[in-house]
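DUF2277 domain-containing protein, Saccharopolyspora shandongensis. Tokens?
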Amino acid sequence: MCRSIKTLRPPYAEDVTEVDIRAAALQYVRKISGFRKPAAHNEAAFEQAVDEIEQATAKLLASLEVRGSR
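Tokens:
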């Protein structure tokens, strides 16, 4: 779907930062909303979506168990 979103889990990525997760969430919301920068009346909804996806992504990455990575 979003070709510019990179895989953030090991072994594809090491030392993933909050900045990396935020960038992926922003890219996802931009893609599905069709807005690079939303109009002022949509900005709060846009930012809330980015925040929620960022949190869900961080939670997912923290809970993944990757075999052979110990």
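Residues 18-62 form one domain.
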